[in-house]
Amino acid sequence: MSYHVLKAGGKLVMFKSPRIKSLKPSTFLKKTMKLSNKDVIGSGGYGTVYKVVINDCISFAVKRLIRLSAEQDRGFERELEAMGDIKHRNIVTLHGYYTAPQYNLLIYELMPNGSLDSLLHGKSTNKMVLDWPSRYKIAVGTARGISYLHHDCIPHIIHRDIKSSNILLDHNLMLEIFRYRKSNSKRRCLQLWCCITGAPNGKKPTDEAFVEEGTKLVTWVKSVVQEKREEYVIDNSLTDCPADEINLVFSIALMCLEPEPSTRPTMAEVLKMLEQIRPEEFRSRT
Ligand SMILES: Nc1ncnc2c1ncn2[C@@H]1O[C@H](COP(=O)(O)OP(=O)(O)OP(=O)(O)O)[C@@H](O)[C@H]1O
Fold first, then answer.
1. Among 1, 52, 198, 277, which residue's Cβ finds the most Cβ atoms within 10 Å?
2. pTM
3. Ligand 1: centre distance to CA 117 (Å)
4. Which runs of E-coded beta strand occur in 68-201?
């Protein structure tokens, strides 16, 4: 269910939801027409993301996509088509969209803690040391979101672009993921590397050292494991953490790095293995 508003040559579509039922479309449009650089919270390959605060209870992340090419328009439609039916607590809610001759807007729920990428590697003001329980929670939430896409959505959905900048965190650092592409094929297990251990020793997957050495994060991790120097791949900001839990999560991440897809666990299996590490966290929910 949605409502549509036509204004200034554009069309606003908001999906009905209890959280935004008091929002007047004109209020939303007034705010979005005044967006400027100071409201920018991120940018990606297809556009810029702005924070839009309506009041204490209602705020959005609005992604502005310039309508330059048919390819970008297709990207917009693809995103809407894919997002429309998805309702899961680990996947960011799409509240609506706005389409005008010059640009399109995608209206998402705002995730107040931004992306995992900026928490791990961002400017020092955004950066914080994520403790082990938070990292574990993020890994489980990621696995839950991906598992839902792989196994519960019909047709199955493969994200194809899981990365720390697509892992968004709410007030409680509970994870949400979004942006995926539709596919009918079912592929086994994606790399969960970044979200599981954070960035090993602070290294980004695109760290310059990898380029210099002509290697990649995954190749580097595998070589370190072969040399039995696993301690090098655990983020050294993780002090006073339960080593057995870290090792278990690390071993699950390694299973996901198997080159042969059929030997990797499915995301449902990954989720189950992760949940078994701290079963007490999940007992209260069932
Ligand atoms: N709902 C949201 N809440 C808070 N921050 C967001 C939200 N959506 C996006 N952002 C911020 O904007 C950044 C860019 O988002 P965007 O979706 O454009 O990135 P992307 O998926 O990396 O781009 P693309 O895959 O299109 O190249 C994110 O990394 C995040 O910091």
1. 198
2. 0.81
3. 10
4. 94-99, 103-109, 157-158, 167-169, 175-177, 181-182
